[in-house]
Amino acid sequence: MKLIRFDALLLLLQLLFSKAASEFNIETLPGYSGTLPVKLETGYIDVGETEEVQLFYYFVESESNPKTDPILLWLTGGPGCSALSGLFYENGPLAFDVVDFDGSLPSIHQNPYSWTKVANIIFIDWPVGTGFSYANTSKGYSSSDTKSAKDNYTFLRKWLLNHPMFMKNRLYVVGDSYGGKLVPMVALEISKGNGAGLQPRISFQVLIYYLYDNSIFILKFCNITLMRDCNGKYYNPDPKNLQCLYALRLIQESIKNVNRGHILEPKCKHIAPKPNELGWDQTLAEDDSIDHLLLPSKINGLWCRFQTYVTSYIWANDPTVQEALHIKKGTITDWTRCNNSLSYAHNIESVVQYHKILSRKGYEALVYNGDHDMLITYMGTLKWIHSLNLTIDDEWRPWNVHGQVAGLVSNSLSHPFT
């Protein structure tokens, strides 16, 4: 039996996987004047047991030193919210001009605070059915927590084999909202793959994730009544516990007009983004979906964050934009920022065990909570830390930015698992 050299094996894998991927360098985009200020790549990589799923991605090279700067795999939440949200509304290098937006194709400008100043970022449309990702079969559109974790790992391996110049770069797995639940699951897949000798070996050293809307960390309310009547269980309470249900209903009634994502921002009535020959549908919607948008972006003098998302609908559904991004024709008929009709099974209730395993292996984690966020409060993270039996080596202290207190921080958590 002949031994195959390691570099020859990688070459063979690259040749095999290159057939399963398509990638394009994007130099210009509709809405941006001139050549893009960053190196942007888009493409598809097929995953799944029969490679029936085509996951779409945006890759932006670091503006500093892409050959040595780390790679971030960014997992937007939902599940079902497009990676375009991260690219244009969060930490990406581009942003829509929402101030001067008039309903036509929005203008694009550069984001001076982009994370691509120091890192390469892969923004991925996950799971299948999100953004521009699609499946070749109807069965392929079914997904779950566990399947998504495996698909994202397969995506990452194939992407690296098609980009061998980044194989030695340190990798960070990052997510917000529901993506925070998938991050430790993907991280464990990477760790197991490295341990099994799967190629390419990923330079996975540090785990970073953000938790925002993950059911296992929900601890919305903390008062004497709930502690007494609900026995500390506020999520999925016992339906027979009428006192607890009544207490929760009172709380819900008292906060129904509060913006739970940011309690200091107004809660606005929304308008559904359904285009017609006269423009955007002006029918008021009363539900809490963040994808009901309003045009213009200010109503009665109030600025509403979610209403600015209308720019993405106009932009991503424009035929010239889809052509510039090299979207396969006929695969997506109506792009939505967040797909709320996915065939998705939430089959992992708790990822605490994933955290314990990763912590034993020596991986580090950064957890972020907004102190004005009522969807996921910092109290939930504190409870999670205690549940992991971690010891705080460095007590909580003020975190200062330009001489001002911007929050509280604690680090250097030890890992005394038994």
Automatic annotation (TrEMBL):
GO terms for biological process: proteolysis; secondary metabolic process. Residues 1-22 form the signal peptide. It comes from the Eukaryota. The keyword Signal applies. This is Serine carboxypeptidase-like 18. GO terms for molecular function: acyltransferase activity, transferring groups other than amino-acyl groups; serine-type carboxypeptidase activity. Belongs to the peptidase S10 family. The keyword Transport does not apply. SUPFAM superfamilies: alpha/beta-Hydrolases (SSF53474). Pfam families: Peptidase_S10. Keywords: Carboxypeptidase, Hydrolase, Protease, Signal.
